[in-house]
């Protein structure tokens, strides 16, 4: 008697069949995608705009990313001439290359980028201050928009944000641009665009007064900006383009000017500032500023310097890693970290009221 | 030899010194330390004798003949050896200890009127000699004592709790914020010994040591006169450039060199630093190389110390600066 063969047929459940079918579909999609990429059919050229569906998706992606990432950023007072006047100069010298001078036609070279760099007069129509700050600070992937070229300098980024807001508020035709903007943009390497010279104050109190600073200090500052030891998104691109000779000649010419006079200030805590400058704060292990500043040409002269500039720099020194890449920076960073913010402000205010000659 | 290895060598020098008799309570050169040494040996030898006696009795109790064991178990032995003996011995030791260490009494200060204020600071010692005629002479990281004369130390702290301990001279005494603890010490023979902070006080606690220099009264007086004087002007071209660097590089913001504009009070007084037996609170030997190493690399040699790293000098400038400081004798 032959054995009867028993054949068992397993019946797949409904969900198992759906699972198998979806595996087939996914496999087909991956193959089709791979074939699409390898076939070279896709036109990568910037001459052809994105498909509208691509545009739709990446716009949502970009705006959601910016909105979420910029949450929690604290916005300073933006209606501040010191901020927007510095921002304007940086904008005209750097950003206009791609974005064009506001209100004027864009250079055809850059108008053929994809995406086309937008006229930033409208930046504040699409985004709020936090979001504009985030984009200027971090840049945007896949667009050609670079991140801010210096870490830990949000103070500089806000100057550009402040200018863009003003530009949006009063329109490009009214937003300063006293001299021909194009002409200013070409003179990028002219320190005087921001720092001015020969007795004129800089465009903003956030910009240091260079008149009469020592040649050694000026040269070191420019070399540190160029070498990246000193972080500044505004100075780095400028110093990058300077040769050793240009650095030397600029340093020499500013050093030969008479130092600026101190400015009256009745609000600040001048007494505390004077004490820190002359005696230091021994109980906090803070030596007197004038044990280096004023006696050593390698340390910058502080008398008559802008109060806001000095306070900003001291704030950088109060954070480890923000301004201590050079030997001088490391030295000052130890001192800066021992000062409170209020003490930093007081000593900045004191030096801003002093005349260089008196202190000699 | 690599840079790092040579530093390790420099750092180990004082550690090795710690193993020698330079910092040892068994090698007393001060009145209190001698008393402590005697007390230690009386206690240790007496304790050892009692320990041996107990062991012998235990051995007898285990292995002895029945007759001996019966006698051991008797009440008489418990009364005499178990109660009477400890009461007498411990009372005697207690009284002996009190008398020896003059418990509760302040040792009599000498008739010289000299007082030495020692302030513990993270992580060094500010030493101020207050003479009978009212002079205050500031130095650091080294305590000079006239042999045979009781001197009162006024121990304070500028920050956290430290403990002043020169084992060859006397016992420990803590330095407590807000208090002045007094200790009168008498050096009994000339010589250089070492002490250190004996209470953990933060990062560089292990590098907070000092030297005690005991001298004959005449030598001490002569030393104190030199110490009271202003710094000697630099001799030679290198030291002169070194002084110029010292005065223009911010050193004077923290350090005093009397006789120059440098009048900082944050760090140690350097007026006669070249004459001391060590640098950086007995962390490094006193040599030009050690000065240069500490100026540049102080955060590696003595981590977290309050001096900023001075990387701004060229090799030549460092040599000049080191030769100037070494010459401040």
UniProtKB/TrEMBL annotation, chain A:
Segments crossing the lipid bilayer: 20-42
GO molecular function term, any single one: metal ion binding
Keywords of this entry: Electron transport, Heme, Iron, Membrane, Metal-binding, Transmembrane, Transmembrane helix, Transport
Keyword field contains Aminoacyl-tRNA synthetase: no
InterPro entries: Cyt_c-like_dom (IPR009056), Cyt_c-like_dom_sf (IPR036909), Cytochrome_c_Oxidase_Subunit (IPR050597)
Superkingdom of origin organism: Bacteria
Signal peptide: none
UniProt-listed Pfam families: Cytochrome_CBB3 (PF13442)
KW Membrane (keyword) present: yes
Gene3D superfamilies xref list: Cytochrome c-like domain (1.10.760.10)
Domain called Cytochrome c: residue spans: 82-168, 178-258, 268-355
Protein name (database record): Cytochrome c553
Originating organism: Devosia subaequoris
UniProtKB/TrEMBL annotation, chain B:
Gene3D superfamilies, per the entry: Cupredoxins - blue copper proteins
Subcellular location as annotated: Membrane
One term under GO cellular component: membrane
Catalytic activity entry: 4 Fe(II)-[cytochrome c] + O2 + 8 H(+)(in) = 4 Fe(III)-[cytochrome c] + 2 H2O + 4 H(+)(out)
Transmembrane regions listed in the UniProt entry: 37-65, 77-101
Domain of life: Bacteria
GO biological process: ATP synthesis coupled electron transport
Domain Cytochrome c span(s) in chain numbering: 237-329
Family matches, as CDD domains: CuRO_CcO_Caa3_II
Cleavable signal peptide: 1-25
Chief place where the protein resides: membrane
Protein name: Cytochrome c oxidase subunit 2
Species of origin: Devosia subaequoris
């Amino acid at each position: 008697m032959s054995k009867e063969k028993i054949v068992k047929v397993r019946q797949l459940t409904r969900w198992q069949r759906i699972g198998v079918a979806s595996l087939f579909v996914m496999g087909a999609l991956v193959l089709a995608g791979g074939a699409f990429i390898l076939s070279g059919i896709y036109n990568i050229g910037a001459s052809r705009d994105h498909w509208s569906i691509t545009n739709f998706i990446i716009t949502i992606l970009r705006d959601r990313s910016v909105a979420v990432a910029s949450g929690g950023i604290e916005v300073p007072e933006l209606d501040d001439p010191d901020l927007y006047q510095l921002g304007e100069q940086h904008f005209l010298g750097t950003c206009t290359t791609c974005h064009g001078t506001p209100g004027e036609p864009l250079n055809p070279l850059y108008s053929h980028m994809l995406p086309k760099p937008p006229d930033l007069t409208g930046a504040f129509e699409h985004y709020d201050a936090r979001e504009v700050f985030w984009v200027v600070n971090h840049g945007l992937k896949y667009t050609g928009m670079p991140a801010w070229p210096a870490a830990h300098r949000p103070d500089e980024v806000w100057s550009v944000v402040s200018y863009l807001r003003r530009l949006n508020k009063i329109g490009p035709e009214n937003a300063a641009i006293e001299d021909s903007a194009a002409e200013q943009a070409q003179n990028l390497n002219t320190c005087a665009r921001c720092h001015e010279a020969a007795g004129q104050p800089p465009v903003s109190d956030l910009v240091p007064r260079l008149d009469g600073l020592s040649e050694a200090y000026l040269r070191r500052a420019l070399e540190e900006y160029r070498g990246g030891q000193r972080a500044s998104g505004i100075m780095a691109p400028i110093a990058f383009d300077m040769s050793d000779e240009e650095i030397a000649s600029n340093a020499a010419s500013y050093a030969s000017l008479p130092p600026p006079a101190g400015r009256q200030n009745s609000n600040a805590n001048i007494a505390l500032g004077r004490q820190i400058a002359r005696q230091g704060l021994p109980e906090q292990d803070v030596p007197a500023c004038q044990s280096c500043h004023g006696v050593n040409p390698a340390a910058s002269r502080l008398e008559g310097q802008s109060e806001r500039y000095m306070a900003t720099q001291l704030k950088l020194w109060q954070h480890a890693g923000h301004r201590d890449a050079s030997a001088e920076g490391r030295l000052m960073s130890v001192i800066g970290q021992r000062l409170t913010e209020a003490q930093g402000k007081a000593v900045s205010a004191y030096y801003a009221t002093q005349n260089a000659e008196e202190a000699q | 030899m690599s840079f790092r290895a040579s530093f390790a060598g420099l750092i180990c020098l004082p550690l090795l010194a710690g193993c020698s008799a330079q910092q040892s309570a068994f090698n007393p050169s001060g009145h209190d330390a001698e008393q402590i040494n005697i007390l230690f040996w009386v206690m240790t030898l007496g304790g050892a004798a009692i320990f041996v006696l107990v062991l012998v009795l235990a051995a007898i109790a285990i292995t002895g003949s029945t007759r001996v064991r019966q006698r051991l178990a008797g009440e008489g032995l418990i009364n005499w050896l178990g109660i009477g003996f400890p009461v007498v011995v411990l009372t005697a030791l207690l009284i002996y200890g009190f008398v020896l260490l003059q418990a509760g009494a302040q040792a009599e200060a000498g008739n010289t009127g000299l007082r030495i204020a020692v302030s513990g600071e993270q992580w060094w010692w500010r030493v101020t000699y207050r003479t009978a005629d009212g002079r205050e002479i500031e130095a650091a990281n080294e305590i000079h004592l006239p042999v045979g004369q009781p001197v009162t130390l006024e121990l304070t702290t500028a920050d956290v709790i430290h403990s002043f301990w020169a084992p060859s001279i006397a016992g420990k005494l803590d330095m407590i914020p807000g208090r002045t603890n007094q200790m009168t010490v008498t050096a009994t023979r000339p010589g250089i010994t070492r002490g250190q902070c004996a209470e953990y006080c933060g990062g560089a606690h292990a590098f907070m040591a000092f030297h005690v220099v005991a001298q004959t009264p005449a030598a001490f007086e002569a030393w104190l006169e030199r110490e009271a004087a202003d710094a000697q002007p630099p001799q030679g071209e290198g030291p002169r450039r070194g002084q110029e660097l010292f005065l223009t590089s911010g050193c004077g913001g923290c350090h005093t060199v009397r006789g120059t504009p440098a009048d900082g009070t944050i760090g140690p007084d350097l007026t006669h630093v070249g004459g001391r037996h060590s640098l950086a609170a007995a962390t490094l030997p006193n040599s030009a190389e050690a000065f240069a190493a500490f100026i540049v690399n102080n955060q590696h040699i003595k981590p977290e110390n309050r001096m900023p790293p001075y990387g701004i000098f060229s090799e030549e400038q460092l040599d000049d600066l080191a030769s100037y400081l070494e010459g401040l004798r």
